[in-house]
Write a structure and sequence with these properties.
With about 170 residues, this protein is mainly α. It has helices at about 30-35, 55-70, 80-90, 95-100, 105-115, 125-145, 170-174; strands at about 10-15, 15-20. It has 7 helices and 2 strands; from the N terminus they run ββααααααα. The protein has a two-stranded antiparallel sheet. A hairpin with a 2-residue loop joins strand 1 and strand 2.
Amino acid sequence: LLNSNLQIKLLYLPGEYQLLHHGFDNPMVQKGIVDNLAPYISPEQTERLEREPDCRSDLYSMGILLYQLLVGHQPIKGANLTEIYYNHLAVMPASPIQVEPMIPPMLSEIVNKLLQKIPEDRYQSSQGIKFDLEQCQMQFTSQDCIPDFKMGTKDFAPFLKISKRSYGRKNQLN
């Protein structure tokens, strides 16, 4: 996972976990490691957008991991970094239920919400996704199925995003 300074905090490599506190400019972080992380970054971490990654970037990455757990492969693929970045930015992967029809529809919808390209369309907080996943678990445990429910009822942004644009002040600014 990457923080906003593009520092690797926890990195999975086949067979072992490594905890690193170094940025990409450190010689310890080699090109192969960056290439391996590319399928897990959010669109805003590609540096092709004029927006800073925030906690919703981690939720996008979580969606990629859940997708991979559910269907057995990553939702974002490409022959090279440019293609992977393009797919993060512009291509919505097939819904998990389209790939694996046995996946409960609500679980598929949760993953789809996590994988939205625009951060405002994703879950806004880990509490929101946690609540919805707990609803799925509770329903599945008690009913052996997951009926439809309204997602995001406990999902609230943990911060106030203030726009850099002024609204309704055109006369005062001129």
